[in-house]
């Protein structure tokens, strides 16, 4: 992110999207040949808007999917018979996140990803220590409301520390703390939503991991599930909380 020129980073992001597309196609039970076609379509959906200068439109559409469609779908349940719709949803999961990576500056991407990692780690340990009430037992039995609260608290701490030590956030003071911390909490909630949506996609496919690309960790989607939801919101919120 920090060393490649813009076009080089775009190529890397397109490759990641294509690899994620293959895994998503497998979760949708597409035939082997169709999996590669789906991966190419995912990468193209990312690349073409970028080339046309319409990346922000795709980011907005991705955020709308996460804000409006994904929560309702999770509430009603993702089922195996819905795999055609799930295949379409995969495009909204992958391509907008890639556009958001290029819309944000490298440091901004790193800050957003750091928030996702901190929230996920705190939720894991907080859930193990204090977890009593299941957050979404039908989707991910290990997640608890106590873990989610731990993630929210850790996110606030992370956001305050970043505002204190990161120069690009040095202008946050007074009333600007309210939208800044509210945005941080929203990104934390988004990270949980991205994680749950991919978990639901895996559950309908009756698999534990999205793939085996990363030994000991599972598939690529298992590493970027939360970020696919967080990054589009981060790209839209960043100009509001830290004007350039």
Question: What is shown here, in short?
Answer:
The chain has eight helices and two strands, in the order H-H-H-H-H-E-E-H-H-H. It has 244 residues and is mainly α.
| Strand-pairing-aware structural class | mainly alpha
Number of domains: 1
Widest β-sheet, arrangement of strands: 1-2
Range of strand content: under 5%
- Give unreliable regions as ranges: none
Q: How many helix segments?
A: 8
Strand segment count = 2
In angstroms, what separates the terminal alpha carbons? 19 Å
Sheet with the most strands, sense and barrel status: 2 strands, antiparallel
Shape estimate: globular
Helix fraction, binned, reads over 70%
Quaternary structure of the protein: single chain
Estimated radius of gyration: 18 Å
Q: What is the typical, i.e. mean, pLDDT? A: 92
List the helices and strands and how they pair.
Elements: H1 6-27, H2 32-52, H3 55-76, H4 83-103, H5 106-130, E1 134-136, E2 140-144, H6 145-165, H7 177-204, H8 220-241
Antiparallel strand pairs: 1-2
Helix pairs in contact: 1-2, 1-4, 2-3, 2-4, 3-4, 3-7, 3-8, 4-8, 5-6, 5-7, 5-8, 6-7, 7-8
How would you sum up this structure, described in words?
There is one protein chain. The chain is mostly helical. It has one domain. Helices cover 75% and strands 3% of the residues. It contains eight helices and two strands; from the N terminus they run αααααββααα. The protein has helices at 6-27, 32-52, 55-76, 83-103, 106-130, 145-165, 177-204, 220-241, and strands spanning 134-136, 140-144. It has a two-stranded antiparallel sheet. Helix 3 (55-76) packs across helix 4 (83-103), helix 4 (83-103) packs across helix 8 and helix 7 (177-204) packs antiparallel against helix 8. It is globular. The model has no long low-confidence stretch (mean pLDDT 92).
